Amino acid sequence: MKQKIILETKNVSKVYDSNGLVVKAVDEVNLRVKAGEFVGLVGPSGSGKTTMLAMLATLLRETGGSLLIDKQDLGSMSDAQRTKFRREKIGFTFQSNNLVPYLTALENVELMLRLNKTNGRKSRERAIDLLTRLGLEDRLHSLPSQLSGGQQQRVAIARSLIHDPSVVLADEPTASLDTERANQVVQIFADLIHEGQRAGIMVTHDLRMCKYADKIVQMVDGKISRVITERSEIDLLAGTSKFDQLPNNENVEERRWLKKRALISQNLEHLPAGV
């Protein structure tokens, strides 16, 4: 049985024109994300991945091409319609968690439901259940200042999922976390995407977090330069901590390089013969 396509872009572009200077931030990108699929979007600074994520979140309007979510063409919608669609269908976790400082963890999550005019006892029960699943049952009434960085990001994840969106996006969600907390946050994020059969995309510079993804999409100069779907290749890529260490051309030598880099990252003293 084929998995449903939740998110699709067709030749999507974003062009900026400043006094005759034309810059293609995103250049005719084609992308599909299935239900229950978690995609890692990677690339060097200036590759267009953050602009791409902003368009997928409907925060930026595409210059060309089309964006479809749940088979609805966002290009034909007015700004007001896109705003309503975003509130109902898209969840977003930012690099900084953007929690309201004077609201508790529970109130921060409930805020999204209030924006969507979904109130009542069932909404609160849903928020409590989600925070409990994220291991925050004893922090429901804590202010953000009373939470650790990892706990704050888990509250942000709960807020992005509380309205049951079709698409969940994350922009560098682990940038301010140590390795242990980063792994916990991305593992939870991936699990909830799989369980809810949502389309999930995470922009990250930390390739170690790619091990939780089902697919890796690499962007360079506004274009998709490579898509990795093989589990073994994803795991090898996750052994590379910095994107600028990654070769651009996919060939036999690159595969050997990736294998060596993965082994080195695991502190193995000797590489096997033939590598």
Record keyword descriptors for this entry:
275 residues; alpha/beta; Rossmann fold; six-stranded mixed β-sheet; four-stranded antiparallel β-sheet; 8 helices; 10 strands; 35% helix; disordered C terminus
Report on this model:
The protein has helices at residues 49-56, 79-89, 105-115, 121-133, 149-161, 179-196, 231-237, 252-265; strands at 5-18, 21-34, 37-42, 64-69, 72-73, 90-93, 167-171, 199-203, 215-220, 223-228. With 275 residues, it is α/β, with parallel strands linked by helices. The protein has one domain: Rossmann fold. Strands 6-7-8-3-9-10 form a six-stranded mixed sheet, with helices on both faces. A four-stranded antiparallel sheet has the order 2-1-4-5, covered by helices on one side. The longest helix has 18 residues, at 179-196. The radius of gyration is 20 Å and the shape is globular.
The level 1 CATH classification is Alpha Beta
Q: Percentage of helical residues?
A: 25-40%
Q: Describe the main β-sheet briefly.
A: 6 strands, mixed
Low-confidence stretches: 244-275
Treating each run of at least 4 consecutive H or I residues as one helix, how many helices? 8
Quick one: overall form? globular
Total count of strands: 10
- One letter per element, helices H and strands E, the order comes to EEEHEEHEHHHEHEEEHH
- Helix/strand-derived category reads alpha/beta
Strand content: 15-25%
